[in-house]
Amino acid sequence: MTFELFETQIYELNEDEKFYRSYYYARQQEYSLKKFLANIDLGEVKKRNLLIPELAETIPPRMEDSYVFTAKDQKDIAVQKHNRFSPALEHSHTFFELLFVYDGKCSQKINGKEMNLRDGDLCIIPPGSRHTVEVFDESICINVFIRKSTLQNIFFNFLRTSNVLSMFFLNNIYSQNANDYIIFHSGPDIHAHIAMLRTLWEFTEQDDYYYSLIVNTINNLFAILLRYYSESVEMPTFIEKSDVQRFALLQFIQSNYTNITLEEIAERFHYTPEYTSKLIKKTTGHTFTHILQSIRIERAQILLQDTNMTVSNIANQVGYDTTEHFIRTFKKLLHMTPTQYRQSNIRI
Q1: What confidence tens digit (pLDDT) does each residue in 123-157 have?
Q2: What count of other Cβ atoms lies within 10 Å of the Cβ of residue 18?
């Protein structure tokens, strides 16, 4: 399907939306709801991951990665049109969710806070935040789901820059007490709208190199939002000095991961090494060594997937003194060698 045709057909109800619309109107009367539920094919409902609050077996306690990502394609980003008329169930998930209002409006409640999103709004919800989404009209919203475990791999270079969005992502990757959401208001910006629609189109068609195009398009969208809409961004504000310290420390480690030491961080922020170590542990729940190791291995994963560099060269580039040390650490964290990882994770 061409992009131009997809642009017009997005307004048509898909099969899941037709189901939810019937369910939505059936819920208006008790007798009609009973009749609707009595005629449901429960096996088909479970197969399609349809959510029916009256049927407890269709409601997962939490949406795990497997709810939107399939083991078969091993991709770390999934995109879909938000199903209109689907029930506004409070839920949380293990992945990041981007919700973009392409046309119209929607209502959300995030950790108890109610908010109305309008055309051009992009709301990013991190893992663990309990929220609901309501779209009970003809509005079009687009969802992008990104695995938490690999977000840093996908947007590594972006996260090395200092901006409000990288702060949001890094805090939610490494911190115990991070932000509940972040919202950008792009209004009628045609570039943001086209970027989100092309992302959905690429994921729907899945032609050659579609995944690379999705990653590049999302990176471009982030750049547009940061260039033009940073001043109007909504995000729970920092209320503790440690919140600012947390981001500054993570950003410094992220930017200097190849050769940074705890002593150098302490000197940079005018602390003692002991205090720096405790501060990192207190605000993120992880040791400095754990965070540094994670960043290096995540960067190595990108190089193994996207380059022909030797394992030895990759080890050196991400900060390991010896190839043997790198291989041992990689295998300890991912339960396979770098070579095995490369063979099973070639990007297309």
Answers
A1: 999 998 999 999 999 999 999 999 887 787 788 77
A2: 14
C-alpha closest to that of 76 among 149, 126, 131, 143: 149
Please report, for residues 113, 127, 163, 209, the alpha-carbon distance to residue 284 in angstroms, rounded to integers and kept in the order given: 25, 15, 19, 36
Q: Please tell me what DSSP assigns to residue 93.
A: B
What DSSP state is assigned to residue 161? S
Nearest Cα to Cα of residue 83 among 28, 145, 27, 134:
134
Cα 29 from chain centre: 38
If one compares 171 and 189, the residue with the highest pLDDT of the two is 189
- CA pair distance 106, 140, nearest whole angstrom: 9
Read off the pTM. 0.78
Q: Are 140 and 149 in contact (CB under 8 A)?
A: no
H/E stretch holding 134 reads: strand 131-134
- Rounded to whole angstroms, the Cα distance separating 137 from 201 reads 22
